[in-house]
Amino acid sequence: MPSLSELMKKWKNPVEMLRNSRSGIYVYPVVAPEFANWRDEQRAWRESAVLFDQSHHMDELIVEGPQATEFLSHHGINRFDNFGLNRAKHYVPVTPAGHVIGDHIIFREREDKYVLVGRAPTANWLMFAAAWGNWNVRLRHDPRSPSRPEGERVLRVHYRYQIQGPEAWKVIEKMNGGPIPDIPFFHVDWINVGSKRVQALRHGMSGAPGLEIWGPYEDKSYILSTILQAAEDAGVNLVRCGSRAYSTNTLESGWIPSPLPGIYTGEGMLADYRDWLGDDMYEAVGSIGGSFVSDNIEDYYMTPFDLGYGFYIGWNKDDFIGKAALQEMKDKPHRKKVTFEWNRDDVLKVIATAFEDGTPMKWIDFPQPNYASTSADMVLEGDRMVGLSMFNGYSFNERALLSLGVVDPDVEVGDVLTLKWGEPEPTMKTSTERHRQADIRVRVCPAPYARQARESYAPGSWRTKAEKAAG
Amino acid sequence: MPSLSELMKKWKNPVEMLRNSRSGIYVYPVVAPEFANWRDEQRAWRESAVLFDQSHHMDELIVEGPQATEFLSHHGINRFDNFGLNRAKHYVPVTPAGHVIGDHIIFREREDKYVLVGRAPTANWLMFAAAWGNWNVRLRHDPRSPSRPEGERVLRVHYRYQIQGPEAWKVIEKMNGGPIPDIPFFHVDWINVGSKRVQALRHGMSGAPGLEIWGPYEDKSYILSTILQAAEDAGVNLVRCGSRAYSTNTLESGWIPSPLPGIYTGEGMLADYRDWLGDDMYEAVGSIGGSFVSDNIEDYYMTPFDLGYGFYIGWNKDDFIGKAALQEMKDKPHRKKVTFEWNRDDVLKVIATAFEDGTPMKWIDFPQPNYASTSADMVLEGDRMVGLSMFNGYSFNERALLSLGVVDPDVEVGDVLTLKWGEPEPTMKTSTERHRQADIRVRVCPAPYARQARESYAPGSWRTKAEKAAG
Question: Do the record's keywords include Transferase (chains A, B) (predicted)?
């Protein structure tokens, strides 16, 4: 298996490599596209309750051993001194240069055992880092499910469900067979699901408490049946969410799932990492899609400050990878995370071209028009690029196309900018048809966008910045 | 398991029962939604070549035994005197009242063995009929794959692939390792696929010959790899078609997949059939969606004449189920099958409401907006209903929303009518969000719509009506 380094030699630069990836759309695999219909599935997380099946789309990495805490603390920006048992954090590793590699939700199950869940780049980085730094940790990696199993059986180590929405708690208490002790946000406790004791992370969406539960994959059917029965008994319209609606929930809650891992440049540890990565791994087969094209891959990198994670940083830790670089950046101006609300008339003009002969504008697929694992669309003020749109989708709750991204420090909420939609010239990507570019006006809005999420998502996350419980 | 008869007693009438079905969207299961993107997948069957994986969405029924021919001939309208070995037909059973039950492709494999492939209603009817009429036939039924397998393994008796498009033949000859003898349309022969001998049905689309091949399901991966390698060796851009694009191919070729089986009324054999059918079968859990609402379920029934299958009828057969009724209808005026081309501006007005507050018009999901197993939308001339739209979808090749349906005899190609889009009031169907109705102008066009398909689909099918080889 050739390495990423070897693969990169075949291309003019890594941007060209990733913009021409033929791996196809980054899908949310295995889960049915729709159980009801994607409009009502979106509506359910705002109005009643929704069941997310998160068993398949994320990597899981178990880190245990005498040095587990020290290892993870050294490779993430987060504080670990407040990381008690039975809680979770939003874990962010960066490169020595301070660029975000990815992010995982990390659960502390024992003094010396953590479970991490998220996209591949964080798992890959930690697997490499354990060997590279000669750490005394045991790792167990369960990669996400295949994108197109085509009828073959798919097994994971754990099932993972989330119940969210204003009526979620009624279902959860019915399932538990009684009231649940007050679990603080991003803390973990044990609850009953029928006859089983199950770990549950207190989460939240749309201003109401929800839970994420997980356990051995072989319990999945039992757990699912028990949840559905509990919803029926509680008289709650719990809607199972399919893969088409699933990936759009983040547009309302404001998390950007897809920053490009900042690992394509840099020497030392990073060069060794590229020699370690195989040419079939996320970093090699992932794709960049969108109107923003730069020869310099670093122009796609994000810092924790850009993404609003600056307040996670454990400055008091003796050292961690990237600390020096982040210290350097700390007091300089940073980009900020926002939601772009797409102009309705401009969107309709794009759609109209699908009914005309000739090359249409880039089709906006509903509800999820992303066509690469990393989206990068230019956001302009006049001719000047002032932002990057990074994750797109339609929200039936907001009756709008929204995208998440970053803008320069001088851009303000309320500004109307122009998003360049579509790529300047054809690439080898299989995920997009030949198309023309379009200008779509976008209004800069806060992230998270949804009024409810914005005002009452939860204490203790970057969503409110009121506390730092998730950091 | 209660029967359909018992289930029907719980409802005011069967229309109400089917319009409130909660079984969800009728999906094309197991096959990935997209391999490339649905626009390019549609384009491939017009411009290069496409690979359809038809292994999962249809029932298969094997009928063998001393009375196999007599049994099938008695339960279908088709001629059997010209049904030699190694050919196929488009088999249409009707009720004693002459209403279409469904249709299957039927292959004659031996003197006393046939394989039938299609939606459930034809398979169910034949299974019932064999016992009801005390026929000496052995039946083996392989129902279609589950709609939402959610990671569980799915097995069928046979894999089934189709290679279609203007460059399909190059792939097929490469796969065969040499030229293929001229197989007449809808005839079967054996070809090589790598090291295997495989049965192939000569089919065609977009005016070019194609093949459908099948064999034991355990050979599926080998066959797929061999086809893809052959395409590469032949230098043909063979695009795998996902489930989102798949179901739209019929809009260009003009076959209506979803007539409602005419079995909800009638006494004698039909009453016995409803006692035999279980309340979990297609006829009980299937759904009707659309603006046409009648208290009389017979208003949804089709005759072979309506669907353009009148010329299949084997009038010279001594008897077959429905013969007397069809003879009665024969010389009366019939509806005719057409394609409706939806007005672009009206479509855009519907889409625009997805960006406004309040109850939107019914969302048109791309490329496949059907939201029931049987679609029934009213087509009006002024206030007068003059047609029924029965299968909807968007064609990137035609840059248009199209639907297939039937119109009254006096409607002419070129007429502009109004399609009522959306349901008059909410139902219990999970497949549609709450919505308002919309008027969409439609232009009446021939079926098949596509110029190429219309002019050169193949000799010997209802598509050209030039010969009767498929009947």
Answer: yes
**Contact status of A348 with chain B (Cβ, < 8 Å):** yes
Task: Determine, for residues B24 and A40 on separate chains, whether the beta-carbon distance falls below 8 Å.
Answer: no
Please answer yes or no on whether A32 and B354 come within 8 Å at the CB atom: no
Residues of chain A in contact with residue B359, where contact means CB-CB under 8 angstroms, are none
Interface A:B, Cβ pairs < 8 A:
117
C-alpha A126/C-alpha A118 separation (Å) is 12
- By C-alpha distance, the chain B residue nearest A148 is B32
How high does pLDDT run on average in chain A? 94
Phi, psi at A13, each rounded to 5°: -160, 165
Residue A94: what pLDDT?
98
Task: Please name the residues between 8 and 27 in chain A that touch chain B, using a CB distance below 8 Å.
Answer: 24-25, 27
> How buried is B141 (Cβ within 10 angstroms: 0-12 exposed, 13-18 middle, 19+ buried)?
middle
DSSP code per residue over A130-183: HHHTT---EEEEEPPPPS--TT-----SEEEEEEESTTHHHHHHHHHTS----P
CB B166 within 8 A of CB B418: no
Helix (H) or strand (E) holding A108: strand A104-110
Task: Give the side-chain half-sphere CA count within 13 A for A177.
Answer: 9
Is the CB of B369 inside 8 Å of chain A's CB atoms? Answer: no
Nearest CA in chain B to A399: B355
CA dihedral B445, B447, B450, B453 (to 10 degrees): -150
Answer yes or no: is pLDDT of A452 > 60.
Answer: no
Element (H, E) at A344: helix A344-352
Contact B37 A25 (CB under 8 A): yes
For chain B, domain boundaries: 38-57+149-246, 333-470
Token pair listed for A446: 């806060």
Q: Answer yes or no: CATH 3.30.1360.120 is held by domain B38-57+149-246.
A: yes
| Tens digits of residue pLDDT in B354-411 | 999 999 999 999 999 999 999 999 999 999 999 999 999 999 999 999 999 999 999 9
Residue A458: pLDDT band (50, 70, 90) is very low
- Suggest the residue from B30, B39, B57 to mutate for an interface test with chain A (most A CBs closer than 10 A): B39
pLDDT, tens digit (0-9, with 9 covering 90-100), for B4-61: 999 999 999 999 999 999 999 999 999 999 999 999 999 999 999 999 999 999 999 9
Pick the CATH number of A333-470 from 2.60.120.10, 2.40.30.10, 3.90.1600.10, 2.40.30.110: 2.40.30.110
Establish if A433 touches chain B: CB-CB under 8 angstroms.
yes
Among chain A residues, the shortest Cα distance to B341 is held by A355
Q: Which residues of B touch A355 (CB under 8 A)?
A: 344, 347-348, 399-400
**B152 in contact with A at a CB cutoff of 8 Å?**
yes
